[in-house]
Specification:
This protein has 295 residues and is an alpha+beta fold. The protein has three domains: 5-74, Orthogonal Bundle (Multidrug-efflux Transporter Regulator, Chain: A, Domain 2), CATH 1.10.1660.10; 98-113 and 225-292, no CATH class; 118-222, Alpha-Beta Plaits (2-Layer Sandwich), CATH 3.30.70. Helices cover 42% and strands 21% of the residues. An eight-stranded antiparallel beta sheet has the order 4-9-11-10-6-7-5-8. The chain has a three-stranded antiparallel beta sheet with strand order 1-3-2. Strand 2 (34-35) and strand 3 form a beta hairpin. The chain is elongated and about 85 Å long. The termini are far apart.
Length: 295
Amino acid sequence: MTDDLTAGEFQAMTGLTAKALRLYAERGIVTPAWVDPGSGYRYYARQQLQHGATVDLLRRAQVPLAELASAPDFPFDRWRQTVALRRHLEDFSLAVAEKISIFDADDFIAHSTPAAAQDWVGIIVDLDLPENAEGRVETFTGLAVDMPAIEGALRDALTDLGAEPATVCWTAVPDTGVRNASGQMLLARSGGAGLDSAALARIEKVVHASTGSTVTAVAGTLPRRVEVTFAAASATEPTPVDEAAAGYLHLLAFEEHRARHRLTAIRPTARQVVRGPSLFTGDGAPVSVFDVQPG
């Protein structure tokens, strides 16, 4: 008579559910010691109890399935760091959400500045943002290095094409009509009048050759408009939570301002504008600018 455990006994002793045990068997994470060829019943060795219980508890700790195969040699220290990062991000997001939930339009002062039509040229960058928080942190860390290089390659390409240095630069959600699930960003700068499709193709090639990034070069004209910006009514030093919430709060302030004054937005979201030839080398922080049709 075998001393091995039935699937039901193994489940009861490890905490694993029948569904999980079947899935783990299919994935090779916790495989039966043997399967009865006649009945198809699965049996597990008692020596597998430690592994089974470890896997169950790792799943309760939200460890992905792909990591469970290494349960016997699981990198607990590394995962503790991952959990700590996730908790920090959750706490931070909670604080930002709380800040947004108590939004008060009276906390912001609107400034409106008429602006003439402006030619611009830029590139659309696919961000390829992962779903998980840890992956997003890693991606944004990489973007902090990649974006200045991409903008520099754009600037070099435009210099080769005879373009004048930019007086203003901005980032924005591109007006492509469709946003992919991973997100896109437009890096734009003033100038670019008269650039044809061959010049745009040249920009794409220069950026790819310099940075390895595949981008889409675009050009257009901002129409005559009124630029609406917002400043905090109080002069307190902003905290990291304030800075993270600012974009959302400015959007809410703009929506209230737009409705109150019956304004027509040219684009649904703000441009993050920096005065000067570069987004990344200037001293000033980006300013959220909402473009509306002139009255």
